[in-house]
Amino acid sequence: MLCAIFTSVVEAQQSLNLMPLPEKVQAGNGRLVIDRTFSVSLAGHHEARLDRVVEIFLGQLRQQTGMPPIDMKVTDSASGTLVIQAAGGTKQVQELGEDESYKLDISDSGAKLKAPTTLGVMRGLETLLQLVRTSSDGFAVPAVSIEDSPRFSWRGLMIDAGRHFIPLDVLKRNLDGMAAVKLNVFHWHLSENQGFRIESKKFPKLQEMGSDGLYYTQNEVRDLIKYARERGIRVVPEFDMPGHSTAWFVGYPELASGPGPYQIERQWGVFDPAMDPTKEETYKFLDKFIGEMAGLFPDQFFHIGGDEVNGKEWDANPKIQSFMHVHGLKDNNDLQAYFNQRVQKIVAKHGKTMLGWDEILRPDLPKDIVIQSWRGPDSLAQAAKQGYRGLLSSGYYVDLMWSAERHYATEPQSGAAASLTPEEQKRILGGEACMWSEYVSPENVDSRIWPRTAAIAERLWSPQDVRDVNSMYQRMAVTSRWLDGLGLTHNSSYDPMLRRIAGTDNIAGLKALADVLEPVKDYTREETAPAPATSASPLNRVVDAVRPESATARQFTDAVNELVGGAAKPGVEARVRELLNRWRDNQVELQSQFEKSLLLKEVAPVSQSLSALGAAGLAALDYLDRSEPAPAAWVTAQLALVEQAKKAQAQLLIMVAPSVEKLVQASAGQPAPSSVPAK
Amino acid sequence: MLCAIFTSVVEAQQSLNLMPLPEKVQAGNGRLVIDRTFSVSLAGHHEARLDRVVEIFLGQLRQQTGMPPIDMKVTDSASGTLVIQAAGGTKQVQELGEDESYKLDISDSGAKLKAPTTLGVMRGLETLLQLVRTSSDGFAVPAVSIEDSPRFSWRGLMIDAGRHFIPLDVLKRNLDGMAAVKLNVFHWHLSENQGFRIESKKFPKLQEMGSDGLYYTQNEVRDLIKYARERGIRVVPEFDMPGHSTAWFVGYPELASGPGPYQIERQWGVFDPAMDPTKEETYKFLDKFIGEMAGLFPDQFFHIGGDEVNGKEWDANPKIQSFMHVHGLKDNNDLQAYFNQRVQKIVAKHGKTMLGWDEILRPDLPKDIVIQSWRGPDSLAQAAKQGYRGLLSSGYYVDLMWSAERHYATEPQSGAAASLTPEEQKRILGGEACMWSEYVSPENVDSRIWPRTAAIAERLWSPQDVRDVNSMYQRMAVTSRWLDGLGLTHNSSYDPMLRRIAGTDNIAGLKALADVLEPVKDYTREETAPAPATSASPLNRVVDAVRPESATARQFTDAVNELVGGAAKPGVEARVRELLNRWRDNQVELQSQFEKSLLLKEVAPVSQSLSALGAAGLAALDYLDRSEPAPAAWVTAQLALVEQAKKAQAQLLIMVAPSVEKLVQASAGQPAPSSVPAK
After folding, report:
1. With a threshold of 0.90, does the pTM exceed it?
2. Has B308 been annotated as catalytic?
3. Residues of chain A with pLDDT under 70
4. What is the CATH number of the domain that holds A139?
5. What are the residues facing A133 on neighbouring strands?
6. I want to staple B154 with a disulfide (CB 3.0 to 4.6 A). Which of A85, A86, B420, B429 is the partner?
7. How close A90 comes to chain B (CA, Å)?
8. Do residue A135 and residue A65 come from a single domain?
9. Hey, how many other C-beta atoms are within 10 angstroms of the C-beta on B637?
């Protein structure tokens, strides 16, 4: 058989739309038809987990192709359409660093998947599913040879179930999404000032008084862990201490450093309550509690949080001050280090390895602990030099509403980490996308995680030199649709949320507007809130519905750059004009709706600005088309208008404003800025 | 407070979009704002079921408004936003005829819901949820007074889980839909030639050998019954016998009248295998089996099917022939009647009331049995005259792909049933929509049931004189969207299915086509299949994705009728032209896609026909606009083309063909037919 060998990774990317991109891809000729006679042979090592993995795979393959459940089966014959050959099984409890590599060979007559472990089989099956497409022969996968293994062994997603409770079914569909893009650690942030989210049988007042009734039972936790294991995902629990712990103190005020009583916190931010590190009772409590949780969560790692203690309760408590004096603890950092040492011994006693945020890093802790960095690669490098293993999360906070491009550019082995010795570099285990949940509900959490987390997953799985942004966006769009089929609601929740806001089925106008909006970035939402948001604030506004990254705006930016650069392909100007026209006229369409809906009304000024941008852009194009420099006064007025439109309104940004600015500048004959400012 | 009293039911319909329409509606002034402070007081009779009902209600209210779970609670105070006053509770097992009436009074300061039972509370809460809308003050319900009670006490939906297995979660979301439109009986068709779908502990080979592994465990059944009870829905199981029972015989061939062995049937139709009514072992088996199921299903009624026995196995079995001779059974009808009498005694012995299809009606059965009629109101009337209670299902078969209008026009008390005495009329308990599942999968079953079943639900709940078709369609469209929020996929599955068929995100062309198509009606799909469909046939074709009733075609028909009638409002012709243009040009857009997808290719000729219809319609309009009679030869050619386009292709009907025909006829100056033929 003739084989076309891809000359570059990029070429394979374009062709196959895989994400994360495999290490090595070699295209073949022809394709393997997938119909209802598709069958699977299990030729290698066999364990019960593999049966379940194949069952999940077949369910998904049937779903992707619309095949009935009575076909597409495991066959006893050795000549199934897909032959799976695992050399070995997996550990009883999934371990960090277990081999996830696989080889997948597809020809027009069949597919072979070889892997050293069942984990590798899982990863290969996801690749196979991504290759399924519609063809003139029905469904098919292209002939291809793939060799693949991950760059980092820890590729995680953290979901904060503390600030907003995220129900089990929502977590499960997100685990499906994780498995689809080969993430392998679900970091479950289970306690916060705003809620304690897990049933403790030893200390039931934790959930009874600290959760508003919104918590996971231990049976549900076991169920989730099983679900994750079937998808090759470890589950690492986090119990944040000694800060971020108000919800613990509602039922157990004696743990706290202040006088109490305590209420579940409703606001967002960093708060004063902290555990009392000076009382032996605190450690007795934690010993029992951590013991209980260590029995529930089989994973080797146990996350104790450890971030953002403001120390105010400690400062105000004379007994704590006296303890510090007696023990020579010169400041609150020392006191927290003392606490961490004590907690680390408890964690270790229960057979676990401690994990915590940057702040826990102090040379007096044993070298087996792991640092999760919200500060950046330099902090990670510093830890690695001291012999500590670390994970990068700085740059992967999906709640900050950054572009996928920006997350994608975040490299764990950059900065100071790039110049580590090979041995030190090995201590950088990988990273985790973090979904902090101040502004997410079960309804919109998927749209905050996906599809951008697929770009982070690729950063953590694929070779370091895979960084073509256009290719990433192209493949991420395909992956986003594929994730729809798993039941993720990042796309499907958009229209219903807009319909609720508008109070009508007729959302064409609102959608034209919402499609070019993004929520404000970083922590601006808190800073610009007219009244402080709380955990009781409805998340049903336009800012909660719009996507973190506007695809329309990105495409518009590209088109304007082509136009202004003088290298526009035919049709580009027409497309740009069509959009500008739509925006200019959209205000008229929406006008009658604003008065009917309180939720819609707050974006009336945003719509007004977009309309003005549309008019400005069209006029600028007219000048450009006539090769007539726009009058200076007009340009000044338009730039002022653009400047206004760039400002956040209703906590929303109009993402096309910078490109309209570029058009206006170009129409004036002014040099365009070197690029549209990065989002 | 000033009150505007609606002068007609129709006026209330237009304003409130309730479905089913309540018995009495009186509008008030103002509205009650629904925000996160919304609370519920339970002022009347209290039972555990009521707490759960209110919890479900609040969950749904939060979902509709996007409110957080920590607000909108039950309050101890007597002055909640909504005060619920139930006079009594409900029966331990929900009974036929339990009072479901309620009174709902909403003013701008609060809402009061009064009902004699918790069941009435449930129905009233659904009405309240339907009233929630977006307003300039946020979410609100209009001030209104409603008195409501159902016309019929048995308002059911049957789902056939035998021919295609329907997973539990799919059933649950359909129960949500049932509750939303006040249906109160889920009839669960659990055994068929193609599958035995429930776990029997006494006869495990039933599910082990008769289900392809696709069956409900007894725990799942209990779970579903509980779920239904919380929504005021009775669950009536059906085990079809003595025919439709091949799947039983795979594990227990000794029950059958033929020599066996038996395989699970894969084809559709009426088959020969039938239980042997002459062996005592059959009744011993059924005694144990019905006893087991009677213990599992608490409902008073037990459905034994009893339909479509072709008698061939009986004819061919000498022992059976000899038995008939000895017992003076002159034909197979007599033999089945003998079987039914025996089975009825077993059903009664286990404390249940027997229910069966038309065929079981024989004067020798006791008067407490219930007849479900697939034959029609006359058959129902005949049963009622003999003293039997009955249900109408003829006219409510949603698998036949009829329009909502046609189902809506089906009246249980019509035909011979209209002239029954009042006492006889009372024996007509209601009716059931029937979802037979030859061509449904978990993916498209919702779209076959909804929204049309809402029209059937209204027929069974609302006063007999509620029959304004336009109002029904208007309210059904609103209800359809509302059902989306319950997780029903009748709308949301459409685009993903079309994307799979096209193999691309760009489905604008396919959608323009699919939007005016409907599956062939009645049993034409079987009759026109190129090869016999089986239970293993993928249900991923265009015919499986298109809606049973095309809203676009209905609107087009209305517009054409206006135009041809000379009473078109401004803009109607423009809209008609826009659609015709789209259809004419759509073929060009789709052309390049046909070659890329096998599933799409089969509709290439359909698209071609639609394109020709578009061109014909536009030309006809041109003639009409110029008041110039179209040339006879052109008219003849167009009518031939329309005739061709009316024929089913790929098992699809182009629903706009009759209206284009009307335009062509009008352009020729020919008298239009009195109306477009009924679908």
Report:
1. yes
2. yes
3. 1-14, 670-679
4. 3.30.379.10
5. A140
6. B429
7. 28
8. yes
9. 13
